[in-house]
Amino acid sequence: MKTYVATNNPGKLRELKALLKGSPLQLVAPRKYAPVLEIAESYAGNAILKATALAAALRERVVSANVLADDSGLEVAALGGRPGVHSARYGGPEMEWPARRAALLAELRGIPPYRRAARFVCVLAYVEPQGEPITATGTVDGFILENESGSGGFGYDSVFLYPPAGRSFAAMSEKEKNAVSHRHVAAQALIEMLRARG
Fold it and tell me: Which of 43, 151, 169, 183 has the fewest Cβ atoms within 10 angstroms?
């Protein structure tokens, strides 16, 4: 099933392709993707906004295909769950990722390691041409490091310590991260939902 992914983030697209390899979904990037305003107050709401907007744009071009969208974020316990759904805009929409990570670490300065619990959350929204959106959720628990570690991944990966590995997501290989990440859990849940429908 040809499935367009509603993202301009090459790292996210690469991860989703790896995670859904072998599934019925054949992921492709749209030639043009105009990001939508993520105004929902939930990951599911934002993922559905992105998926349905791309599906509508494809219909206008008389393209019949499925659409997959992701909304994800980092929730830090010491910050009351922030930045959460606003993770990609934390510190301001124009801020570059290195500055965004630095701002997060600065806000947590002085907070001891045992109080730096955090989790990544991912919601995938999947829309077929004539169907209602279905969503799948995944989470992974960890801690926020005091300094960045690792050069892989993207987003907040270099500040997120995954305890079972004893390393940040950015210090793990793509294969290692993809086996345990929040996006992996959501992708597996989506695959199971699609298989259950037959």
Answer: 151
The three-state secondary structure class of 134 is strand
Q: Alpha-carbon distance 172 to 154, whole Å?
A: 12
Specify the 3-state DSSP secondary structure of 167.
strand
The pLDDT value recorded for residue 198 is 65
The reply to whether CATH 3.90.950.10 applies to domain 2-197 is yes
Catalytic residue positions, numbered? 71
The torsion region of residue 143 among left (phi > 0), alpha (psi -120 to 50) and beta comes to: beta
pLDDT confidence of residue 122: 97
Residues 189 and 187: their CA atoms lie apart, in Å, by 5
Q: Which residues of the chain have pLDDT under 50?
A: none
Q: What are phi and psi of 44, to 5 degrees?
A: -60, -45
pLDDT value of position 38: 85
How large is the C-alpha radius of gyration of the chain?
Answer: 17
Taking the C-alpha atoms of residue 149 and residue 89, their distance in angstroms, rounded to an integer, is 22
Helix (H) or strand (E) segment spanning residue 120: strand 117-127
Give me 176's structure tokens: 């290692």
